[in-house]
Amino acid sequence: MDLTPYVDHLRRELAVAADAGGDEARALAERLSAPLESAARLTLLNALSAAMSDVTRELAPGSVDVRLRGLDPEFVVTPPPAPEPVREAREPVAAPVAVAPPAAEADDGTMARINLRLPSHLKSRAEGAAAEEGLSVNAWLVRAVSVSLDGGGRASAPGGRGKDSGGRGFTGWVR
User: Fold this and answer.
1) pTM check: above 0.70
2) Which residue of 26, 38, 44, 120 lies most exposed, with the fewest beta carbons within 10 A?
3) pLDDT digits over 67-123, tens only?
4) Does a structural domain hold residue 26?
């Protein structure tokens, strides 16, 4: 997502507001517009990150990550894992039992913090699994816990995302 049009629009609005103050205000606005560009970009990134956090809460166990590539953010959508396909059995099998959806009052949309202590070998495996799917460790753990509690199945989406072509990337939240 290119933030340049939004930053340019803000710069134009500042110039229009400064025109009302005369030549001195116009000159001040011109001097301030360049330093304000980085602050405007950071503010837009914070707003986008907060919005994607809300979207991720609604998609759980799926997620939406905001990644910074150069000066512009990129959104990475990870859908929830697909249910396992039903395999045909040679003998009649009882119909699968439907899992009741969680109660509405169970998910009020608030986030809670938890400190999790893992043995170092498990931490490295979790980091590796998250990286293979292109997720932050936090997003991967949220999905794994959600899948585990909401009826089992696999904790990772099929065909997960790997690292970008350069093997570098940043994953996480901007606040």
Assistant:
1) no
2) 120
3) 777 777 888 888 777 776 766 555 555 555 444 444 444 555 677 778 788 888 888
4) yes
Q: Which domain holds residue 117?
A: 4-83+112-149
Q: Residue 168: inside a domain, yes or no?
A: no
For 130-148, what is each residue's pLDDT tens digit? 888 888 888 888 888 888 8
* 29 belongs to a structural domain: yes
15 inside domain:
yes
Angle, CA of 157, 163 and 169, to the nearest 5°: 115
